[in-house]
Amino acid sequence: MSATKEDLFETTCGLEIHVELATASKMFCGCRVDFGGEPNTRTCPVCLGLPGSLPVANEKAVEYTMKIGLALNCKIADYSLFHRKNYFYPDMPKNYQISQYDLPLCYAGHVEIAGDWGTTTVGITRVHLEEDTGKSIHVGGSGRIHDSTYSLEDFNRAGTPLVEIVSEPDIHSAAEARAFVSELRMLLEGLGVSDVRMEEGSLRIDANISVRRKGETEHGTKVEVKNMNSVRSVGRALEYEERRQREALEAGELLVQETRHFDEKSSTTSPGRTKEGSSDYRYFPEPDLVPFEPSAEWIERVASSLGETPTQRRARFASEYGLGAADIDVLTATSATADWFEAAARAYGGDSKKVANWIMADLFGLLNEASIELSQSKIAPEQLAGLVKLVDGKSISGKQAKAVLAEMFAGGKDAAVIAKEKGLEQISDAGALETVVEEVIAENAEAADKVRAGNLGTIGFLVGQVMKKSGGQANPGLVNELLRKKLT
Amino acid sequence: MTDLHYKSATELAELLENQEVSAVEIARALIERADEIDERLHAYLHRTDERLLDEARASDERRSAGEPRSRFDGVPTAHKDLFVTKGVPTTSGSRILEGWVPTYDSTLVERCSAAGLLLQGKLNMDEFAMGSSTENSGYGPSRNPWDTNTVPGGSSGGSAALVAAGGTPWSWGTDTGGSVRQPASLCGLVGVKPTYGLVSRYGVIAFASSLDQPGPLTRTVADAAAFLQIAGGHDPMDSTSIPQPVPDYLGAIEGGIEGLRIGVVKEFEEAEGTEPGVKARVAEAYRRLEKLGAELVEVSLPSFEFGISAYYLVAPAECSSNLARYDAVRYGSRVDGPDVVSMMSRTRVEGFGDEVKRRIMLGTYALSAGYYDAYYGKAQRVRTLTIRDLERVFADVDLIATPTSPSTAFEFGAKTADPLSMYLNDVFTVPVNLAGNAAISVPCGTSPDNGLPVGLQLIAKALDETTMFRAAYAFEQDLGWAGSDEGRPSL
Q1: Domain for residue B60, yes or no?
Q2: What is the mean pLDDT of residues A58-64?
């Protein structure tokens, strides 16, 4: 996009993010929340919407929602209730969704995001709780319902607790949108309320995007883009829509308010099936559930259980460990990584940057090769700290340490044990080395004399001889020191 | 044993305990009775004769082993066909649920089994409990045993017809706007609308969730109290169920009504359209209450005139949503179509009757964007007014006495052409559902006009069923109608 176009136009975007909560049971019944399973095996009369069945709200899900709301600096409603959102769809067992309407559990929050452009505060309009639908597989045609031959319905997912986070239209670029989603993702992961597996749909994103000429006070025509489930596709969808809408405006075309579908493969959006008129969900208070009024004690208890937000953690990584922005980004990409680093740094006790380097330069390489996550590796943070200490104490060389790490990675043994087993441990005992040094001086009188005469360059040769004689186990620094002491 | 079928549940329990009769004998007698009467009454939608006999044998074994599940172990019952019953077809009176065999039991069915009650079958009703005559049943109407040319009332009309004809001692119905009390009144029975939340709605096919409440239909007040004691009480599966133990109604039932203050509602007495015979019998009933020591005081419920209007917004709104699930995707009948929308819509066009469609349309309209505040919102405010009115009146009185229905049993087709005249049959019962209070209908004899039964309604404070039963019992005992030849239809 050329600079002139950027100057002429302004993009406005608000996001709606659906998060599946990782509670043990579903939102309104006792069925297990879990991915997979044979179709329609994790169901009961309630989540199948059988006649006569009634919902009972999952308290843990309410608590998780409050947790998310508090972490996003929201206010918690002192009176909240569920509404029914009525519309027909074959994967929705009751043909209404139990959701929230004008009295969401959390409202009026904000989150800060930072990047190349600086910092932006994105307002959080609301965070509310609802139930997920089942899953449809449309067979035949394009794979969408309107031209399929038949559809298969799996209700295992039906009734999974779903949190909807709605942002204010405070996002103005693809970079900001990406930063916002990844910030949320880290925050949710850190709170332990969702497993945020985006590819499995536990985080789903819709975006409202409009473009207007700079200086205009009215927002441009809004387009809702659906079906994004990764940080990358949110950015791409926004970039595509920005371009499309700008070009339309430049060409003097009128934009229509519509729902568009994001296609992952082509990174483009296309108009959804046109609806006849605007949909009317006929919201009304869910009569099968009673309103809830979270007590001040409950809110306080949830608030005090909150850990650091990702932003706070990043700031602390800079001040406490003296890490640079790029390193912090890598080490806080997931809270599991950040926790791992902190455990290793604590066990080590010295300069944390060394630990950070070992993790980023070496451990990540091994993880990549093995295609596993840090949590699946056999190395404990304390063990990595032990390895770095061995190097510091000159028991093994840096080069040897890399080999030791590879073994630790493969077998989970302590660094010291591996070093000993492989006979890698350096001889750092001056007494033990002294004999070898004296032998080498006696055997290489000519070279020794050169050193005595002030030709210090030859000392390297003598160090090499000692190393050879010790089978490579001598600590070269110490050997160097001993030679100098004896010859100069 | 002669005439077993007109014994009350309490009497049957005594006979069983004294080993004067076995559960199998009772079951056989009631199967025989069903064969004898049901062709004329059409009270049943589904009979479970075999299961009844199996359960009876098991009950007799428990008794002889000295391990009855309750004192009513071995007493049969039949439920309105909206109580979801595992393995037994359950239709809610609708063609759209034809062929559905539930995979679970409602809490109420479970509690009846836990007390050792035997299941006789499932009973006819207006489709999805919408109606006051059973003429809206998808399977044809039931008939009133007092006069088979007249309706038994509704929507729990099958229950009322069967209990009145001695086909079962007791039956559970549901009351959303009068659906237990009005048929009880029209069939000369006791019918109770418990406080909202006293009896679990889990497994009760919903009509209007915020108004629906299961209630017993019986021939005696004591049986109604006992039945409520068996099935009532907190259920964690129903979020609107009240977390309180059920009091011992029977223990207090003989307390009499000396000193009770009973309100008579000015607006109800002045209401147009009440049959003279009903007025006469109910006026006699008021005098009887006074004679028994109650003090009658005139009270006013100004919100009364808006009751039916508010009810016909709230109930259709909730039903339009509750009935959305009948879409042919997962259960029930299906009419295929070229795509999913036509399948859903064809199934619903064919599966639902006219009254159900009328209410779905009313409710959909009332909840639509732009109309919500004017209709549903305003109806909810009327509801609040009704609650306040009743609270104000109950600050001064213990009970309120009214006619249950403005009419006695009417002929088939008399009100079907004019839905509003049918709706007005619930004019005295609907305010109780809007407010959530408890109420009972007790027989007060037959109308001098046509010899058909008339009911007296006693409305109580929320959760004050104890006082309600006490007064109804004193009235029933003094009248001496229930259990007498006069109190029995000559079918």
Answers
A1: yes
A2: 97
Residues A258-268, mean pLDDT to the nearest whole number = 90
Count of CB atoms within 10 A of residue A83's CB? Answer: 23
Q: Is residue B326 part of a domain?
A: no
Q: Does B147 fall in a domain?
A: yes
Across A141-157, average pLDDT: 86
- B374 — contact with chain A (CB < 8 Å)? no
Please identify among residues 130-149 of chain A the ones whose CB lies closer than 8 Å to any CB of chain B.
145-146
Domain extent listing, chain A: 3-301, 308-421, 430-487
pLDDT of residue B164 exceeding 90:
yes
**CB B253, CB B442: distance < 8 Å:** no
The closest CB to that of A287, out of B100, B102, B209, belongs to: B209
**Do the Cβ atoms of B372 and A86 come within 8 Å?**
no
Who's near B332: CB < 8 A, 6+ residues apart?
B96, B97, B98, B99, B100, B326, B347, B351
Which range, A209-213, A416-420, A463-467, B393-397, is most confident? B393-397
- Positions of B marked catalytic: 80, 155, 179
Distance of CA B363 to the CA centre of its chain: 23
**B370 pLDDT higher than 80:** yes
CA–chain centroid gap for A31, Å, is: 28
Q: Residue B80 pLDDT > 80, yes or no?
A: yes
Is A39 in the B-facing interface, judged by CB distances under 8 Å? no
**Residue A328's pLDDT band (boundaries 50, 70, 90)?**
very high
Report CB contact under 8 Å: B239, A49: no
Q: Which domain holds residue B181?
A: 4-256
Nearest by CB to B330, from A48, A55, A56: name it.
A48
Residue of A nearest to B197 (CA): A288
Question: CA-CA distance, A134 to A157, in Å (whole number)?
Answer: 5
What's the CATH number of domain A430-487, 3.40.50.1820, 3.40.50.150, 3.40.50.2300, 1.10.10.410? 1.10.10.410
CATH of the domain at B202: 3.90.1300.10
- pLDDT exceeds 90 at position A225: yes
Q: Which residues of B touch A57 (CB under 8 A)?
A: 239
d(CA B196, CA B214): 9
Say if B82 is an interface residue toward chain A (CB within 8 Å).
yes
Sign of the alpha-carbon dihedral angle for B415, B420, B423, B425: negative
Q: Do B239 and A57 touch (CB under 8 A)?
A: yes
**pLDDT for residue A102 is more than 80:** yes
Q: What is the count of structural domains for chain B? A: 1
Measured in angstroms, the CA of A140 and the nearest CA of chain B are apart by 13
Quote ipTM for the complex.
0.96
In this prediction, residues B25-49 reach a mean pLDDT of 98
Encoded tokens for B147: 């006069």
- Confidence bin at A415 (pLDDT 50/70/90): confident
* Any A CB within 8 A of B339 CB: yes
Chain B residues within 8 A of A56 when measuring between CB atoms: 236-239
Q: Which of A10-24, A120-134, A456-470, B120-134 has the lowest mean pLDDT?
A: A456-470
Contact A315/B at CB under 8 A: no
- In B336-438, which residue ranges form alpha helices assigned H by DSSP? 340-351, 354-367, 378-394, 419-423, 430-435
- For residue B318, the one-letter residue type is E
Indicate the pLDDT class of residue B385, thresholds 50, 70 and 90.
Answer: very high
Short-list B148, B244, B159, B208, CA closest to B363: B208
Q: Any idea which residue has 């309630």 for tokens?
A: A46
What's the pLDDT score for residue A5?
53
* Beta pairing class for A96-99 and A284-285: unpaired
Better pLDDT: B302 or A481: B302
For the cut 50, the answer to whether the pLDDT of residue B390 exceeds it is yes
B462 is a domain residue: no
Tell which residue, A69, A105, A28, has the closest CA to residue A292: A105
